[in-house]
Amino acid sequence: MTDVARRVTDAILVAGGKGTRMGGQNKVYRLLAGQPVLGRSAAAFLSHPGIRRVVAVVAADDAEAARAILPEEVTIATGGASRAASVRAGLAALSDAPPDRVMIHDAARPLIDRETIARVSEALDAHDGAAPAIAVTDALWRSATDRIEGAVPREGLYRAQTPQGFRYEAIAAAHAGWDAPGDPADDVTVALAAGLDVVMVPGEERNLKLTLAADMRRAEAMTREGTPMDIRMGNGYDVHRFGPGDAVILCGIRIPHGRGLSGHSDADVGMHALTDAILGALAEGDIGRHFPPSDPQWKGADSEIFLSRAADIASGRGFRLSNADVTLICEEPKIGPHAAAMSARLAGILGTTPDRISVKATTSERLGFTGRGEGIAAIATATLVSETS
């Protein structure tokens, strides 16, 4: 029997299938929270102090794609026509310097955690094999159609997971001696057929296998659990005096009026304040820094250009708008009849929904320049959120 004191352990990532039940691209090359699934699985084992080396078994025509996303220290082996054949290819790739133990893991389980790997490894001190599992808690039914034919007792039933760990020589011999018809469901099946002693260790719900599109969405949500939120708030203030004209543009809406607003662009005081609020939340200066009034190209420009640019900067840095609040300060024109249209217009520019954009108005009780009807002021607040890794 292998000397358990040495505990040299390698890992095999099984990724030899096409993995297209999600539709389109092979699932192990899809991005999960910005990282390819295969790369995430490899990183979990490479970073574990108990793992010496990692072999990724991939389809022959995926070798180039795998090499592009995997670190150089990962060995790439060509898979076979079945899962068992791919595992045998992985075992063979380790035969030049065989380990004492081997962890065989579905590459489509990218959220494997360090604790589960450790539990499997520790169980191998006293057993030929070990695998994580979770007890079945849901009721089980039997049916060959859409009609329920009967219940199946769930006592003593478990959901199998990987990595399934074994003494290397024992599982290599078991695979070599497999002669039952069909492809075995997993490596525990092969081990049991060879008479090996295999025990269960506690699995984790996070260690799910990506099979359908819903699994990917669930995994994305799991990667965000416990992730700190970066929340930013910014304020903006702007003012424009009245001048000649027959309408004012406020928050993207043209309102007929006896005077217009003077400014280098279209003088949309509400949109300017909101642009400054977003830029302020990002510590990106103000609207004048990005669109200098001294630059003639912005003369008479639609302020949507400014607000869209601020939104693009936020998105490029991984932020999304949580909500915005704009207050217009003026004696005239009346804002209330146009507030809903203004919210909808701003929401459209910012790629959100109107229920996240508040537009309201107040007067200054005839005090100050707004009270004297000399111009319009606007105050805006914007909240940006980003999930940081």
From TrEMBL:
InterPro entries: IspD (IPR001228), IspD/F (IPR026596), IspD/TarI (IPR034683), ISPD_synthase_CS (IPR018294), MECDP_synthase (IPR003526), MECDP_synthase_CS (IPR020555), MECDP_synthase_sf (IPR036571), Nucleotide-diphossugar_trans (IPR029044). The keyword Chaperone does not apply. 4-CDP-2-C-methyl-D-erythritol 2-phosphate binds at residues 238-240, 264-265, 286-288, 362-365, 369, 372. Residues 231-384 form the 2-C-methyl-D-erythritol 2,4-cyclodiphosphate synthase domain. HAMAP family: IspD, IspDF, IspF. Bifunctional enzyme that catalyzes the formation of 4-diphosphocytidyl-2-C-methyl-D-erythritol from CTP and 2-C-methyl-D-erythritol 4-phosphate (MEP) (IspD), and catalyzes the conversion of 4-diphosphocytidyl-2-C-methyl-D-erythritol 2-phosphate (CDP-ME2P) to 2-C-methyl-D-erythritol 2,4-cyclodiphosphate (ME-CPP) with a corresponding release of cytidine 5-monophosphate (CMP) (IspF). In the N-terminal section; belongs to the IspD/TarI cytidylyltransferase family. IspD subfamily. Belongs to the IspD/TarI cytidylyltransferase family. IspD subfamily. This is Bifunctional enzyme IspD/IspF. It comes from Tropicimonas omnivorans.
